[in-house]
Design a protein that fits this description.
8 strands, single chain, 36% helix, alpha/beta, 8 helices
Length: 279
Amino acid sequence: MGYTDQRFNVNLSILFTELPLLERPAAAAAAGFTAVELWWPWIETPTPDQSELDALKKALDDAGTQLVGLNFYAGQLPGPDRGALSVPGEESDRFRANIDVAADFAASVGCKALNALYGNRVDGVDPAAQDELALENLVLAARAADRIGAILLIEALNKPESPRYPLVSAPAAIEVVDRVNAATGLGNAKFLLDLYHLSMNGEDLPEVIEKYTARTGHVQIADNPGRGAPGTGDLDLAGLLDRLKKAGYEGWVGLEYKAGDRPSAESFDWLPRPQRAAN
C-alpha cells in the first residue's frame, strides 16, 4: 500500500512557482503528473479578463493535465490573507464577484471541487457577524458549485501560521460544512482534510480520519515539521493515506508542500514515476 494506491495531484500554487503560471502545467506533466490543483491564480482581481482565463485553460489542455481543485478568490494568498468570504465590505464583495467566474472556469476545464477559504477575523467586527456573512457567501458558493456538478470544500488551517483564522481544527471546519449543507439542502459542502495543517494543530490524525473521512471531499499533504515533501519530516504520511483508503476515501490527494532549495521537479523522488499519473 503506502503511496501506490493513491490519486495524486500537484498544487501549482506552491510547487513549480519558479516558473510563470502558464508554464507550470507542462512542467507538472513533464514530471509525470496528469492532475493539478490551484489557489486562485489572480490574487489582485476576482474577475480577470477572459483572455487570461482562456490562456490558463489552453495551458492545462496543452499539457494534458486535469484541474481537480480550484480555490475561489481568497485575497492575498500567499500573503497576509486567508480568504475573503467572511471579511465585511470590499473583500466580501470581491468574493461574490468571483463566485460565478471561478465556477464557470472550473466547468470549462472539468474541475469538480471548489475551495472556499473562510477568511481571518477582523478587529472591531463581531465574530458572529462575520460568521453570518460567511454563511451567506458559502450558500451562494455551494449553489454555484452545484450548478456545475462540483463540491464546495471547507478547509481547516493551522493556528501557528494562521492565528486569526477561526477554523483551526477539523471539528470547526466540519461544523461549517454542516451549517452550509443545512442551509442549502444540497449536501455538496465537504471537508478539505489537510494532514499538514491538522498535524500543526496537534490533532489526533488517525481519529480525524476515522471520524470524518465520509465527509471529506479532498485531501492535501505535506510533511511536518517544515511543510516539505513526504520523508522530510516526522509524519507517517504513507500510513495515514492507507488509513484514509481503508476508511473509504477514493478522492484526490493534493501535494501541497514546499520543494525547499531545489527545483520542484526534483522534489518528487519519494514517489516513483509510474505512480504519479492519476489512475
